[in-house]
Automatic annotation (TrEMBL):
This is DUF2093 domain-containing protein. The lineage of its organism: Bacteria, Pseudomonadati, Pseudomonadota, Alphaproteobacteria, Sphingomonadales. InterPro entries: DUF2093. Pfam families: DUF2093.
Length: 72
């Protein structure tokens, strides 16, 4: 089925304090919740894990989980 909503997921490279757009789009997907995050509202991500997050609370929780597992 074709999707004509004009919505396209961007592909980003997350850097400390910024990100590079590798493939254009209007949103990314939160790595924890699976919810869409509009690029103009994207504020939280991990450069180490290359993941986006929908909120500060989710980012902090994910950081704690990954630190406990020794991934950060």
């Amino acid at each position: 089925m074709l999707n004509f909503t004009g919505s396209r997921q961007a592909r980003l490279r997350y850097l400390p304090g910024s990100f590079d757009v590798l493939a254009p789009g209007d949103h990314v997907t939160c790595a924890v919740t699976g919810n869409r995050v509009a690029l103009d509202r994207l504020r939280y991500w991990s450069a180490e894990l290359q993941e986006a997050y929908a909120s500060a609370e989710i980012a902090v929780r994910r950081y704690g989980e990954m630190r406990a597992k020794g991934r950060i």
